[in-house]
Amino acid sequence: MQTGVQAANGKLTKADKTRARLIEVATRLFQEHGTDHVTVRRIAAAAKIEAGSIYYHFSSRDEILRAVLERGVGGAREEVMAAIAEAGADSSALVRLRAALGAHLKYTLRHHFSSRLKAIRRLPKRLRDHHMQQERDYAAIFARLLREAQREDLLRGGFDPSVVRMLTMGALTWVAEWYDPKGPLTPDEIADELMGVLTNGIVKP
User: Fold this and answer.
1) CB 135 within 8 A of CB 123
2) Can you tell me the distance from the alpha carbon of 167 to that of 173, in angstroms, rounded to the nearest whole number?
3) Model confidence over 96-137: pLDDT tens digits?
C-alpha cells in the first residue's frame, strides 16, 4: 500500500495526486450517500480508475474513510489556528475563542463536518482510536483558550471548562444539521449568538 509520502524533492508524485483525488472523491460520496452505501468499486468508478488500483493507495474502504476523517480534522485545525493568529496574540483569550468558534462553524458548514460523527462509530476499533486521538488534539485548542481565559480572570468559578468546551463545540458542529444558507443568520451571526450565551453564563459582569 502506498503511503502518500512526497518525492524527495518535495513535489507531489503521480501516486500522491491519485491518492488525494481518491480522498476528495470519497469525501463527496460519503457526504452524499452516507458511509454505509459507498463501496471501493463506487469510489473507483467516480475517480475513473480501476477498482483494484485503489489498493495500491489504501488497504481497505475503512482506510479510505480514515483518510477522509483525518483530512477533515486537519483542515479544521488549520482554519481554526489561522483564525486565532488573525485575532492577534495580544488579544484576550475570549476574542481568540470567538475567532476559533467562528472558524470551526464555517468549516463545519462547508464540509458537513457533523456527518463524520456517525462514520466514526462504524470504524474498526484500531482506526477509531487513532482518529479519536486526533479529535482530542483538536479539541485541546479550545480547552486551552478556556484555561487562558480563566488565568486572565475573565470567567466565573464553579464550572468545568471541559464540559463547557464539549457543549460549545457540539452545539456548533450540529448547526450543519439545521442551518439554512437562505435563512436570516450568517455563520458569523450564529457564532456571535453562541458566544453571547456562553459569555453571559460564565463571564464576570
Assistant:
1) no
2) 10
3) 999 999 999 888 888 765 555 555 666 677 777 777 888 889
CA distances from 101 to 7, 35, 88, 104, 189 (A): 36, 27, 15, 5, 11
Coil vs helix vs strand at 140 = helix
Q: What is the pTM of this model?
A: 0.73
Longest dimension (CA), the chain: 63
Q: Domain-by-domain residue ranges, the chain?
A: 13-58, 61-200
**Is 66:114 a contact under the CB 8 Å cutoff?**
no
Look at residues 151, 148, 146 and name the one whose alpha carbon lies nearest to residue 202. Answer: 146
Q: How many angstroms separate the CA atoms of 142 and 174, rounded?
A: 17
CATH class of domain segment(s) 61-200: mainly alpha
Q: How far is CA 16 from the centre of its chain?
A: 22
Fold of 13-58: Arc Repressor Mutant, subunit A (1.10.10)
Other beta carbons within 10 angstroms of residue 156's beta carbon come to 12
Query: pLDDT per residue over 149-203, tens digit each?
Result: 988 988 887 778 888 888 888 888 888 788 888 889 898 899 888 888 877 776 6
For residue 203, report the phi and psi dihedrals to the nearest 5 degrees: -90, 140
